[in-house]
Amino acid sequence: MYKWRRKVLFALIMFFAGFATAIYALAPVADAKPDSVSRDVKVRNHTDSGSKSKRFALVFNSHMRKCISVAEEQGTKIGEFIKAKLAERPENVRQ
User: Fold this and answer.
1) Is the sign of the CA dihedral 41, 44, 48, 50 positive or negative?
2) Do residues 11 and 21 touch, judged by C-beta distance below 8 A?
3) For 1-95, where are the alpha helices, taking DSSP H only?
4) CB proximity list for 50: less than 8 A, separation 6 or greater
């Protein structure tokens, strides 16, 4: 009877686990330092392409951190709002 609910829940868990893995792979820690560039032309061209992806990852990381901080602020505000609304309810309704 509840088999479809388990399947939907499992699908959602797998989806968000994959999404979290992708975010983790794209957003390295902010303390990552770029590697030193070699003077060899072949190595330099390879490092330039790698540095583009590192720059993208760092920019993505900074935007993701901004998004998380905004979400934390809004979560705090909504939590306070819900607590205020629950405090306004009469005692006999709180059961």
Assistant:
1) positive
2) no
3) 3-26, 41-88
4) 35
Among candidates 33, 24, 19, which has minimal Cα distance to 60?
24
d(CA 27, CA 54): 9
What is the separation, in whole angstroms, between the first and last Cα of the chain?
Answer: 30
Structure tokens at 23: 């975010």
Q: What is the mean pLDDT of residues 22-29?
A: 75
86 vs 23: CA distance, rounded Å? 36
Read off the pLDDT of residues 26-63 as tens digits, 9 standing for 90 and up.
776 665 455 554 444 444 455 555 677 788 888 888 88
C-alpha span between 6 and 10 (Å, rounded): 6
pLDDT, average across residues 52-75: 88
CB atoms within 10 A of CB 8: 10
